[in-house]
């Protein structure tokens, strides 16, 4: 297998430079694909900057990956050369534990053959060595951890679905977003703008709670019927007991959680998917008053990821992306943290 070009950073300053990485030939049951596009998720930034704990450098992030299969290993049946595939946060799991067999590979408990649990994209491989993510021109993965990208989805916009799409689709489905349900999306960035489109396509009445007014027009275009800005005094208090379901995608910890949870109707659910570095203080009074549910949600399993891709294809839903080159990654990270991205940067690997 030839070495391929990739972009890496060397420490928590997250300054990216071009490098070459070595990838393995696809073994039995594996495919190799040329990565064409890779999304920049805020989780890449938390990881690269050490906000979720120490990382091994040089680090090649990227877990929103879209590409075209160019080689298949022995016994591969799902894909052939030329197929459009996507890979998200997971690259392998035992396939036999209770979690894997029920479609929750992200919670794999491991097997006796030595796999400790799910293998994460740009985490540690089964042999304990670090792996590279999708800011690269190639990727080798088990065919069971690649998903098919429907032709209806513009290819250059597909990659963010592999994380932003599934991370919002999964809790929206699990908590019953649909006709007759009032759903609020807090934070309209990469995850949030997908949550709005998906919840609207599921038939829910969608509100966006953003920290300013600048995204209002876009929110309505994505399918929201109400828009609220927390920068305007009294906004959160005025929404008390309004929503059946809230999906909170905010990447920062300075939120009025007590106020937001109180915007749920009794029995409503507040699902947090944002993962800032500082833990939140849970306001139990807002939770207990109203029998409300506070939940978390961690990406989604492989069958549900394929289901989400097919759903987006059928409903004409796609991320709104800004295509960037490898040299733009460093600046893109700062822009994401400053909420300047509209709504996902996607790296075109042909620029490497
Ligand atoms: P993003 O594009 O940066 O969006 C985050 C949004 O949060 C921003 O667009 C902004 O929305 C709001 N926000 C940012 N800073 C804020 C502040 N200081 N105060 C209030 N609101 C603020 O990030 P993303 O890629 O969507 O990821 C969001 C979070 O989800 C990250 O923490 C990421 O690590 C996490 N994540 C979790 C999972 C999972 O499985 N649970 C998967 C992927 C990502 P407004 O401008 O609308 O306010
Ligand atoms: Zn992500």
UniProtKB/TrEMBL annotation:
Keyword set includes Protease: no
Molecular function GO labels: alcohol dehydrogenase (NADP+) activity; zinc ion binding
Enoyl reductase (ER) domain: residues covered: 10-347
EC number, UniProt record: 1.1.1.2
Keywords: Metal-binding, Oxidoreductase, Zinc
Broad class of enzyme this protein falls into: oxidoreductase
SMART domains: PKS_ER
Domain of life: Bacteria
The protein's required cofactors: Zn(2+)
Catalytic activity reported: a primary alcohol + NADP(+) = an aldehyde + NADPH + H(+)
Gene3D superfamilies noted in UniProt: Medium-chain alcohol dehydrogenases, catalytic domain (3.90.180.10), NAD(P)-binding Rossmann-like Domain (3.40.50.720)
Family named by the database record: Belongs to the zinc-containing alcohol dehydrogenase family.
Protein name: alcohol dehydrogenase (NADP(+))
Protein's organism: Schaalia turicensis ACS-279-V-Col4
């Amino acid at each position: 297998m030839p070495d391929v070009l990739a972009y890496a950073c060397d420490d928590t300053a997250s300054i990216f430079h071009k490098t070459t990485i070595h990838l393995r030939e696809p073994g039995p049951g594996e495919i190799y694909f040329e990565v064409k596009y890779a999304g920049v998720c805020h989780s890449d930034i938390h990881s690269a900057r050490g906000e979720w704990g120490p990382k091994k450098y040089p680090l090649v992030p990227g877990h929103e990956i879209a590409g075209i299969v160019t080689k298949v290993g022995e016994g591969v049946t799902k894909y052939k050369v030329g197929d459009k595939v996507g890979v998200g946060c997971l690259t392998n799991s035992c396939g036999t534990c209770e979690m894997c067999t029920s479609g929750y590979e992200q919670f794999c408990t491991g097997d006796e053959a030595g796999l400790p649990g799910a293998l994460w994209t740009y985490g540690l491989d089964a042999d304990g060595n670090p792996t590279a993510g999708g800011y690269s021109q190639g990727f080798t993965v088990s065919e069971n951890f690649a998903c098919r990208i429907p032709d209806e989805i513009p290819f250059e916009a597909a990659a963010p679905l592999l994380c932003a799409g599934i991370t919002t689709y999964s809790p929206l489905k699990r908590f019953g977003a649909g006709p007759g349900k009032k759903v609020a999306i807090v934070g309209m960035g990469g995850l949030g703008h997908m949550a709005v489109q998906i919840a609207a396509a599921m038939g829910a009445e969608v509100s966006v709670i953003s920290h300013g007014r600048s995204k209002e027009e876009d929110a309505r275009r994505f399918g929201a019927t109400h828009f609220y800005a927390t920068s305007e005094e009294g906004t959160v208090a005025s929404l008390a007991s309004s929503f059946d379901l809230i999906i909170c995608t905010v990447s920062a910890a300075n939120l009025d959680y007590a106020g937001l949870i109180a915007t749920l109707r009794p029995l409503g659910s507040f699902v947090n998917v944002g993962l800032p570095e500082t833990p939140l203080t849970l306001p139990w009074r807002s939770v207990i008053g109203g029998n409300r549910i506070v939940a978390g949600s961690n990406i989604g399993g492989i069958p549900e990821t394929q289901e989400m891709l097919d759903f987006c294809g059928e409903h004409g839903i796609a991320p709104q992306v800004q295509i960037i080159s490898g040299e733009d990654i460093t600046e893109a990270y700062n822009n994401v943290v400053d909420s300047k991205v509209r709504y996902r940067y996607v790296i075109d690997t042909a620029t490497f």
